[in-house]
Design a protein that fits this description.
The complex is a heterodimer of chains A (about 725) and B (about 100). Chain A has two domains: about 180-635, no CATH class; about 640-715. In chain A, about 70% of the residues lie in helices and about 5% in strands. Chain A has helices spanning about 10-20, 25-55, 70-100, 130-150, 160-180, 180-200, 205-240, 245-250, 260-275, 285, 290-300, 305-315, 315-320, 320-345, 350-370, 375-405, 430-440, 450-465, 470-500, 510, 520-535, 545-550, 560-565, 565-580, 590-615, 630-635, 640-690, 695-715; strands at about 105-115, 120-125. In chain A, strand 1 and strand 2 (about 120-125) form a beta hairpin. In chain A, helix 17 (about 430-440) packs antiparallel against helix 19. Chain A is globular, with a radius of gyration of 30 Å. Helix content of chain B is about 80%, strand content about 0%. Chain B contains three helices and no strands. Chain B starts with a helix and ends in a 13-residue tail after the last helix. The chains are: A mainly alpha (about 725), B mainly alpha (about 100). The interface between A and B is medium-sized, with 11 and 16 residues.
Chain lengths: ~725, ~100
């Protein structure tokens, strides 16, 4: 066992020592602060709702004017403020953890949440290398997006409501990543789903947008069902759902046993729902109906990566099941390719980014599916930076477009890239930062995405070449698909950039005059994210690259791998024991360095070539554009997956529900209930005929009855 | 001895029952019910010779209840008579379904 400094540490004794040395710095406050922010902003939102309701009652509308009421000024400080403090506290904890080289997870129990017989769940948070890293990403990127939102949502009537939801989301996201057991994680899991629903349908008066929210919620329920089943199975197997005891017991399980495979596959169903993987990815593109910063925060940087976090958290279980791991990688690589093909033909700037997110999430699952858990988290982190940047940049573009179209009473879609073009001249900062993100996502050295994505692709090849690798051929196929999808990524991102920022302006003569760069409150977060999009990759430079190229200086290679070792070492141990060492060479064409060069060159060539090609292309504005034909049309219509789902699942479901309603409920069930009543009334009517009012008849019947009873009792 | 008493009791009882079933006059029917009760009383007395004092005690109860019943029953019949000017039960068919 080696720590980051390369000093050998003696097993148990040393870890006990380090665990006692780690002094957490108000970790509960990290979770609590966004909740406080939610309560304050929520109260302001309610106050604002009352004010506008009474304004409507008086026959007008609440006019915000130039002097914004406190309900619209306070959230600007409260919401990003709590995020900043939470981030700083998380950083202090990170620094302390870093300096004492914590090994065992540090669990802090607050109170007993559920206590029923053998099943107890404690409200406890777990501080370890993974959770603190996720906390830093969530609060750090979250803070920048909160700041951006202050500018983006400034004129929106629902301003305080927006920030209360956003804070609530962060609260649940932190519960998800810091919770010390599966049930607690599930609380966060459901909570972020709720906030996602609320924020997608933020402009709920628009039917389409509220429908998109419902779609996200319902599709996620399918995944949650898998998560729940997996929790039941785990409880049945181990009698506990707390991470620490569960994973220490899990190591004793038989390799590749059916039960572990079932658990991990069910968990992956949950992950596929939350992280928008085939077949449950359909909600994410529709989720773009929400405000753009929401897309950046929830549907790119944080919530959708929860599935990856779940798999890494359960890495011991996944390492035990080669079938489940192959499924995870397979679904991931298919999603990466499939979503990338759809992104090629989308005209809505946010739709391109949405499919790009689905595709990149696919890459993360490839990483964790081939046992490179730290690499998956690495890509999660770099992706959080550059994708948040892309979304915020798109938000700035939409903001500017919306203003110019609004001022000129033009009813064109402000998100349609066919109406943009040449925006570079008006928004130079947005243009520059978005190009940085494009280079990063395309995997071009030295931007962050290069290190993370290339490592995933390399690990796929290396895993397939392991001595006792299960299905080696399959992993070679995965590897090739991942390479193809990487080239597609470079292409569609360049296409988006060219259509938006380059070429001639298609916005309209009058409209162009109103285009403008965003205010500083919006472009400063862009600069910050662009900085991280450049440097974040350097924390995890592969050993092989560092050895080959001199000049990387004193930087530690594979720092993130070493940092996450306490989390992943058990899984890696299982993997090494059963599969042997991973390969040093790809199936063909050399080792890691060669392929890193090849893939970055391919990406760069694709970007340059498609830039040259697309720049000359004549794009028609949306209103005059002709309908596509052939394969382009299939891609434009997203392979008709929504239509297929509609035919195969939604319509039969609606029909069977209608059947249940009209026939089973209205006829059968109501029929039985009404029938019972009717029968009782009919019988009563018949019997009531005996009440003739004739006293003698009564007496006669009484006598007959008495005689019968007498007869029965005697004989 | 007991046989005779029981036969007499049974005869009186059947007579009473018959009267209740066939007559229409409320007073007569009422008297027939008294006849039934007294037939039962006779049977109780007869059996008490064999089985101890319990039967005789029971007879007292029956008589008490019969007295109460007579008071209530006759009161009802009188008020019905005041209303209808008749005590023929065939006329009292108002309370039906």
């Amino acid at each position: 066992m080696y720590n980051a400094l390369g000093v050998s540490v003696q097993g148990g004794q040393a870890t006990v020592e380090t665990a006692s040395q780690f002094q957490p710095f108000f970790p509960g406050l990290i979770i609590l602060l966004p909740l406080i922010g939610f309560l304050i902003n929520g109260a302001l939102a309610l106050r604002h709702a009352q004010a506008s309701a009474s304004a409507v009652r008086l026959g007008g509308e609440l006019d915000l004017g130039d002097h914004l009421p406190p309900t619209h000024t306070l959230p600007s400080y409260v919401a990003p403020g709590v995020m900043l403090v939470a981030f700083l506290i998380a950083s202090v904890n990170f620094a302390r953890m870093f300096s004492v080289e914590l090994h065992d997870p540090h669990v802090i129990e607050y109170w007993t949440w559920i206590a029923t017989g053998a099943f107890t769940v404690k409200a406890a948070i777990q501080l370890d290398q993974l959770s603190i890293l996720m906390t830093m990403i969530v609060t750090g990127v979250g803070f920048l997006i909160h700041v951006f939102s202050v500018g983006y949502m400034r004129d929106d009537a629902g301003y305080p409501r927006y920030f209360s939801y956003l804070n609530l989301f962060i609260f649940f996201m932190l519960v998800l990543v810091m919770g010390a057991s599966y049930p607690l994680m599930f609380v966060g899991w459901e909570g972020v789903g709720l906030c996602s629903y609320l924020l997608i349908g933020f402009w709920f008066s628009d039917r389409e947008k509220s429908d998109a929210g419902k779609k996200a919620f319902i599709v996620n329920r399918i995944g949650d069902f898998g998560f729940l089943i997996a929790m039941f199975l785990l409880f049945g197997m181990f009698g506990t759902l707390d991470f620490v005891p569960l994973f220490s017991q899990a190591a004793n399980l038989e390799y590749g046993s059916g039960l572990v495979t079932a658990v991990t596959l069910f968990l992956f169903l949950g992950a596929a729902g939350k992280s928008a993987q085939i077949p449950l990815y359909v909600w994410l593109p529709d989720a773009m109906a929400g405000p753009t910063p929401v897309s950046a925060l929830i549907h790119a940087a944080t919530m959708v990566t929860a599935g990856v976090y779940l798999v890494v958290r359960s890495s011991v279980l996944y390492a035990l099941s080669p079938i489940a791991s192959a499924t995870v990688a397979g679904v991931g690589v298919l999603t990466a390719l499939f979503a990338a093909t759809i992104a090629l033909k989308q005209n809505d700037i946010k739709k391109v980014l949405a499919y790009s997110t689905v595709s990149q999430l696919g890459y993360m699952f490839v990483g964790v599916g081939v046992g490179a858990y730290a690499t998956g988290i690495f890509h999660l982190m770099t992706h959080a930076f550059f994708k948040a940047l892309l979304f915020l940049g798109a938000g700035a573009v939409i903001h500017s477009m919306h203003h110019s179209l609004h001022r000129t009473n033009n009813h064109q879609d402000p998100q349609d890239m066919r109406n943009m073009g040449g925006l570079r001249a008006f928004m130079p900062i947005t243009w520059g930062t978005m190009w940085v993100a494009t280079f990063a996502i395309s995997g071009i050295w030295p931007f962050a995405g290069f290190f993370s994505k290339d490592e995933i692709i390399w690990q796929t090849a290396a895993f397939g070449g392991a001595a006792k690798a299960p299905y080696p051929m399959l992993y070679q196929v995965y590897w090739v698909i991942a390479l193809v999808a990487a080239i597609l990524t470079a292409f569609y991102m360049t296409r988006m950039m060219v259509m938006t920022f380059h070429g001639a302006s298609r916005t309209g003569v009058e409209e162009v005059k109103h285009l403008h760069e965003s205010p500083p409150v919006m472009w400063i977060p862009l600069i910050a994210l662009a900085f991280f999009s450049v440097v974040a990759g350097w924390i995890n430079v592969p050993e092989a690259l560092r050895e080959t190229f001199i000049g990387l200086g004193p930087l530690t290679s594979e720092w993130l791998h070493h940092w996450l070792e306490p989390i992943t070492e058990q899984a890696h141990h299982i993997q090494e024991l059963n599969l042997g060492e991973v390969a040093e060479q790809a199936p063909f064409g050399g080792g890691e360095v060669t392929w890193a060069l090849v893939s970055t060159t391919l990406a760069l060539v694709t970007v340059l070539a498609s830039f040259q090609f697309l720049r000359r292309r004549n794009v028609k504005v949306a209103a005059e554009d002709t309908e596509l034909s052939g394969f382009s049309k299939v891609l434009y219509n997203k392979w008709y997956v929504d239509e297929i789902y509609d035919r195969l699942i939604v319509q039969p479901l609606i029909k069977s529900s209608r059947f249940c309603w009209k026939v089973i409920d209205a006829r059968v069930i109501d029929g039985v209930v009404n029938g019972v009543g009717w029968t009782a009334r009919a019988l009563g009517f018949v019997v009531s005929m005996f009440q003739t009012g004739t006293v003698n008849m009564y007496a006669f019947v009484l006598t007959i009855g008495a005689l019968i009873i007498l007869g029965v009792s005697v004989f | 001895m007991i046989t005779e008493a029981l036969v007499l009791s049974a005869m009186i009882f059947v007579l009473g029952t018959f009267g209740v079933l066939v007559r229409r006059n409320a007073i007569i029917m009422f008297l027939c019910i008294e006849l039934q009760l007294n037939a039962v009383n006779l049977a109780f007395i007869a059996f008490s010779r064999l089985m101890g004092i319990d039967g005789q005690v029971f007879v007292f109860f029956v008589m008490t209840v019969a007295a109460a019943e007579a008071a209530v029953g006759l009161a009802i019949i009188i008020s019905v008579f005041r209303h209808y000017k008749t005590v023929n039960v065939d006329n009292f068919k108002l309370l039906r379904w």
